[in-house]
């Protein structure tokens, strides 16, 4: 996967921390940076199916590649969406369709997620891939 400069900085920020609680605090900071999808735009089409929290995304492609907006009622999920948004920014539909969220393993977040959060994350990635495949 091609890593943009922003993603490289995110990885460094997380790798500089050893305490899992500090990593969650940083995840919450990234949650606040997400290009938030207004609740007035939430619908069945934007909802991430099978997610424990109420989470919605809108993936668009333009001349600059992918851009992901999202929102969730849980800070952990919103933070995960934010990290994925950073990773996807500028990618082509083909690249998004084949996206693997290895960043989460690399920064040490994936292993500390509850099973229900992991399931929500899997559904997020699956939904993003499906959207991208429909554009290809």
Topology:
Layout: H1 5-15, H2 20-33, E1 55-62, E2 65-72, H3 75-88, H4 93-97, H5 102-107, H6 115-135
Antiparallel strand pairs: 1-2
Helix pairs in contact: 2-3, 3-6
Short synopsis of the structure:
This protein is about 50% helix and about 10% strand. With about 140 residues, it is mainly α.
Describe this entry's structure for a reader.
There is one protein chain. The chain has one domain (5-135): Sufe protein. Chain: A. The model has no long low-confidence stretch (mean pLDDT 93). The relative contact order is 0.19. Strands 1-2 form a two-stranded antiparallel sheet. It has helices at residues 5-15, 20-33, 75-88, 93-97, 102-107, 115-135, and strands at residues 55-62, 65-72. The chain is mainly α and 136 residues long.
Element string (H = helix, E = strand) = HHEEHHHH
Class of secondary structure makeup: mainly alpha
Distance between the termini: 18 Å
Neighbour order of strands in the largest sheet: 1-2
Mean pLDDT, to the nearest integer, reads 93
Q: Please mark out the parts with pLDDT under 50 across 5 or more consecutive residues, or reply none.
A: none
User: What is the number of helices?
Assistant: 6
Q: What is the rounded Rg? A: 14 Å
Proper CATH architecture: Alpha-Beta Complex
- CATH topology: the name is Sufe protein. Chain: A
Instruction: Give the overall shape.
Output: globular
> How does the major sheet shape up?
2 strands, antiparallel
Percent strand? 5-15%
**CATH class membership:** Alpha Beta
Number of domains: 1
Helix content: 40-55%
DSSP summary, beta strand count: 2
């Amino acid at each position: 996967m091609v890593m943009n400069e922003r993603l490289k900085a995110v990885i460094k920020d997380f790798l500089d921390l050893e305490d899992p609680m500090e990593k969650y605090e940083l995840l919450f900071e990234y949650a606040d940076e997400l290009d938030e999808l207004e609740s007035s735009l939430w619908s069945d089409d934007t909802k991430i199916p099978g997610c424990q929290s109420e989470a919605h995304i809108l993936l668009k492609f333009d001349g600059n590649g992918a851009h992901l907006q999202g929102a969730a009622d849980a800070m952990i999920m919103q933070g995960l969406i934010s990290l994925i948004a950073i990773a996807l920014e500028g990618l082509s539909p083909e690249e998004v369709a084949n996206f693997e969220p290895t960043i989460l393993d690399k920064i040490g977040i994936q292993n500390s997620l509850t099973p229900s959060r992991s399931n929500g994350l899997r559904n997020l990635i699956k939904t993003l891939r499906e959207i991208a495949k429909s554009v290809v």
